[in-house]
Amino acid sequence: MRYRTLGSSDLEVSEISLGSWLTYSGGIEADQTRACTKAAFEAGINFFDTANVYGQGTAETAWGEILSAHPRDSYILATKVWGRMSDDPADQGLSPAQIAQQIDASLTRLKTDYVDLYQAHRFDPTVPIEDTIEAFQKVVEQGKARYLGFSEWTPEQIQAGIDIAGSELFVSSQPQYSMLWQAPEAEVFGLCAANGISQIVWSPLAQGVLTGKYKPGQPIPEGSRFASAEMAAAQDLVYSEETLEAVRRLVPIAEEAGMSMPTLALAWVLRRGEVASAITGASRPEQVHANAAASGVELSDDVLAAVDQALGDVPITEPTLAPAAQAGIKHR
What we know:
InterPro entries: K_chnl_volt-dep_bsu_KCNAB-rel, NAD(P)_OxRdtase_dom_sf, NADP_OxRdtase_dom. This protein has a domain at 3-208 and 269-288: Alpha-Beta Barrel (TIM Barrel). Mean pLDDT is 91; it is low at 320-325. The chain is globular. The protein has helices spanning 30-43, 58-67, 96-110, 129-141, 155-165, 188-193, 232-235, 241-256, 261-270, 285-292, 301-311, and strands spanning 3-5, 12-14, 16-19, 47-49, 76-81, 115-120, 145-151, 172-174, 198-201, 275-280. The strands form two sheets. Strands 3-4-5-6-7-8-9-10 form an eight-stranded parallel beta barrel, surrounded by four helices. The protein has a two-stranded antiparallel ribbon with strand order 1-2. Helix 1 crosses helix 2, helix 1 runs parallel beside helix 10 (285-292) and helix 3 packs parallel to helix 4 (129-141). It contains eleven helices and ten strands. The protein starts with a strand and ends in a 21-residue tail after the last helix. The chain is an alpha/beta fold and 332 residues long.
């Protein structure tokens, strides 16, 4: 396993990290969660990413039980705040009161005194950005988080935060990024790199589409991610015949290069120096080890050119899960 420095922080994170969306939030049994986490440590993965809203706290609770058995300095823990945590519509967002409440709740579930990285899960246009930033800074001042990050912020939102608090406010950005969704390369990567902010990318395997297990002209396999009602909205964006045909063209490229499809997809993401880590999900230990094997894999120019040719114009023009409330930045 190789490690990369996370932005301007002193955190050295594994190139492959383990996430908990759609898995440890109730999608798999506790024994599987424990086995996958054990496999992560065995593979050299030291970076674990979760969020308060995953399973309404279930994912944080699961990892709180498991990770608390390990020395706190043996892993880097990240969580997020923004999503609704109860039936109360007001119980969400990035207000100072919500951030203060949710960081304490997350720490309790995670059985730790601090998280290494606390992230805004999305942008909140209903709260003055100055209030949000001050609330996040207070979390750091109180020692409840070491560093701050954000997920799926637009270039305008990122720049607004930097203009208010300087380039050292954030150390990480968490966008969706894969062969099938390359939009962050256009503006987000460059803006962040110029301000010492690394990328921690989610869905590098496009919710499993880039594993090659979905075949064009065939029904969605039972028990797969896209067979779930939760992913129905994403099917039209990623799970399409055009996309699956492009992925089918990628398979011989991976085979000729002597690697699996997941390794090809993860190595493609990690080819960019702006990317500190690729967040992967797993329901079985062998998946964890297979994903970890992509760390350090270098793709030749010939392979990269073949990938570009295979994809053609396929990369989708909309993210799988659209960033919330991109329009408007509220100020005091």
